[in-house]
Sequence to fold (368 residues):
Amino acid sequence: MSGEGNGMSIRVLVVDDSAVVRKLIVRAVRTQPDMEVAGVATNGVEAVELARDLHPDVITLDVEMPEMNGLDALRKIMMLKLEPRPKVLMCSSLTTEGSKVTVRALFRGADDFIAKDADQITRGARGFTEQLIDKIRALAETPEPTHATACQGGFSPPCALSMVNSLCEKRFDALVIGSSTGGPSVLETLVAGLPAGCPFPVAIAQHMPPTFTQSLANRLDSMSNVRVKLGEHREWFEAGMVYIGQGGKHIRLIQSGGPVRVEIDEEPRNALYKPSVNELFRSASECFGNRVLGIMLTGMGDDGLEGARELVRRGGTLLAQSSESCVVYGMPKAVVEAGLVAGTADPHGLRRVLTQIAVGGGGAKRSA
Fold:
């Protein structure tokens, strides 16, 4: 980070074709003692030019703009190969089309996104600006993710190869994944590694609004050997399927005298995140005990920590994404520091162990 004042300011390039939104973001950034507005652009063409000339730390990039949209601007900014690479925060409307483009951007190198509610924006919504500032700060304070690993097998600590082998010999009847900032591209890596006929079902809690989780499910389904869909209330939790939690609601697993089912609801309503990783992990541990494998991926905060405690207490196994490969090392850090994790790895290391478990017999034929 570099700034004109104390040399420690987070330099933000604001890109939006709406004068109202630009003003709102600029004002929010300027109220922060550790941030400054490096520049302002009204379209994608200007954004690319200013990114090249100003080398900002973070770019807030609108999705829908004239002359050059956010997706094309993102591609050109990535092609600049700036060092260090600026973190990109996509700003999207809550429309279905906006969510589709934003999810594509997350797969193409954007680090995070924030949803713009038109009604809230016109009222100068405090909630939007607070979330925006939190996301900018989290992105700026995290080093550029790398794919470096602590050992050749992709896992840390270096002696963890025996742990990987033991995981592949263990029976897992379910996989649950918690994910937030930076997670969609990692989910692509993991889900793409699951073979057709995967012997266990998968449930994912990804922090996203409703229309975005549907776009995420569609995107993952289009590039996977297994079926990926939004979880539906009371449907069977079946092997060979991946269930994405609906944005704005919790996804849980339940069992009462029969096969495990998916539960989708809004309780507890006061949860900070919906879907909540805590709710998913806790419910999975109740259904599967020591036969559940959990993975904590990149994200802000510590959602999932309490659920992970319960998962491990009941004999389940927890893995986490390595700090070096996270966009934001928050959720994985919380479970690592709590001593709950059997091992950490970059996305490709995690994918390798999942593929080995699925192909090598470390899964059950059915979730029941």
Notes: The chain has 13 helices and 15 strands. Confidence is low (pLDDT under 50) at residues 1-6, 147-153. The longest strand covers residues 35-41.
